[in-house]
Amino acid sequence: MSVDSVRYILTPELLDGRLVSDISTATLKDGASKRDEGSSSSKPIAKRTSPSRWTSLEYFLYYAVIIYVIPHMFKAAYEISKEDHPNYLRYSSILSKGWIPGRKVDNTDMQYKGFRDNIPVLFIVLAGHTALRKFSTKLLGNADIQSRTVFDNVFAAIFLIALHGISYFKIIGLLATNYAILKACGTSKATPFVTWGFNLFILFLNEWKRGYLFGRMFGMEYAYIDTQFGGIMPRWEVHFNLTMLRVISFNMDYYWAITSGPDLERRKRPPPSHQSDKDRVSSSHPLTFYNFSFYLAYCLYSPLYMAGPIITYNDFVAQNLHSGKQPLPSTSIKPVLLYGLRFLLSLLCMELVLHFCYVQAISKASHAPYNAWINDTPFQLMMIGYFNLHIIWLKLLIPWRFFRLWSLVDSIDPPENMLRCMSDNYSAVGFWRGWHRSYNRWNIRYIYIPLGGSKKRPVVNMLLVFTFVALWHDLSLTLLTWGWLIVLFILPELTARAFLPYNKYGGNWWYRPLAAMGGTITVLTMCGANLVGFALGVDGVKQLIYDGILNAGWAGFAFLGAVLGCLFVGINVMFELREEEGRRGLFLGC
């Protein structure tokens, strides 16, 4: 395997075919406009990038810092995870047996533990689904959307009954109720409000009624139904949050289709391979395609049911229409195999971190009477927080990539949820474009733009979006605090962009260092917000700051200064990585 092949495996282009296809579409459109204007054929890409700095003296200094600091970061996390560390016995009881000789594994995150312990079963289900799909196609003699929909609905019924038991019929009941309400509303201007009102009501009701347990609703004499017929994962309401997003996507795409104009205009459309991602998402279908059978197949599509990524209804139907004869290039054998390799590399990375850096267990045992980080140095304490964030990133990335891989094998290409490593982010706005990317795109299409986007009350719109995001994740004050903190930390960046726009000042020598300083502060605030929301909570972060900086006196503040300097170096490297992508014609906006 050549060096270029290895580099390609690590590029964003491998992760999502949309990036390559959208570049091609933009290039074709740009070329056509230039021919019409009689101008030269030179690409505008070069005007948006600067000469490479990789071999400059400035960057050789950065390399020296990186070569020294990064190994010490891993060393600090590893040293506090060794058996001979004074605090090891304070948390060792919650570690599990590992498969790497001489090491235990930190399997203390219950959310990821459920996925990790069932990886072999999930691969068997993936293989079984693929084999049955091929058998079904041969049996029916074609792979048109009607045949695929029949298979999807039958498999989903079996899959969900295995997962949720009798609660499958609760899900069908909720979906049928929504469909009936939608069809009753039709072209009424109240349809969007009814859609949101009903689905938010169901979101809260599911949580309040704990999934409508028979024992709670009809008396304990019926509790045996919940225990004996509840399936492998009785808490179906947890996964219904994702289903709700698909329900809203179907409702709104149908509403925009029925109110957008004559139905005949949508009957002749090119295959998805000749459409951009934007076209597939925004272009409506003939109204006959918004039927109950397609709706069920979309909402309960097995590969994406449990964790996503989220694909819009219009895009899902567009890909299903041509998946047999003209599927997207990203679902062909080579891209899927390379994506599978990238998934396995991510899984291996997570296994190494969990076997050698027990930071989750330490943070879970940090309170009295365990005090698992007592007497640790400021550097070690910060590494506990930093590697916790990396584990959060990986524990989300790995399931998302597995289920997307399953979908790609099935010839459906949903958006990639994470394009960048957690440590390759310096912008709060860019971070949320690249973190849970499919959900971000969903929020923009169905909440942010309908509310007015950036043109009308952008701050209020952002606050509403992140309030919904927090409540959608979990109806808790901790995540609501997290959502509002994100908006608070985004505002300074938006203000700086408004007063110092890149297109006006980007050519000045001082612009990049100033932007790096701003990025340094942003990284610190985003780390704090995500530790609050997903790892340590408000009290845990306050304790981490106190023990790591305030309680250490001048040494703590000196360490904070060193952290800021290292972040400044890292952010300048991130700038150049994005410039390098720009030279390839890739502008991700994150």
TrEMBL record:
| Bilayer disposition of the protein | Multi-pass membrane protein
What residue intervals traverse the membrane?
A: 60-78, 154-181, 193-208, 336-361, 381-398, 481-502, 514-534, 554-575
UniProt keyword list:
Membrane, Transmembrane, Transmembrane helix
**Pfam families noted in UniProt:** MBOAT
Q: Name one GO biological process term.
A: GPI anchor biosynthetic process
One GO cellular component from the entry? endoplasmic reticulum
Per its record, what are the GO molecular function terms?
O-acyltransferase activity
Task: List locations, semicolon-separated.
Answer: Membrane
Superkingdom in the source lineage = Eukaryota
What the record says about family reads: Belongs to the membrane-bound acyltransferase family.
Q: What is this protein called?
A: Glycerol transporter
Which organism does this record belong to? Dactylellina haptotyla (strain CBS 200.50) (Nematode-trapping fungus)
The organism's taxonomy opens as: Eukaryota, Fungi, Dikarya, Ascomycota, Pezizomycotina
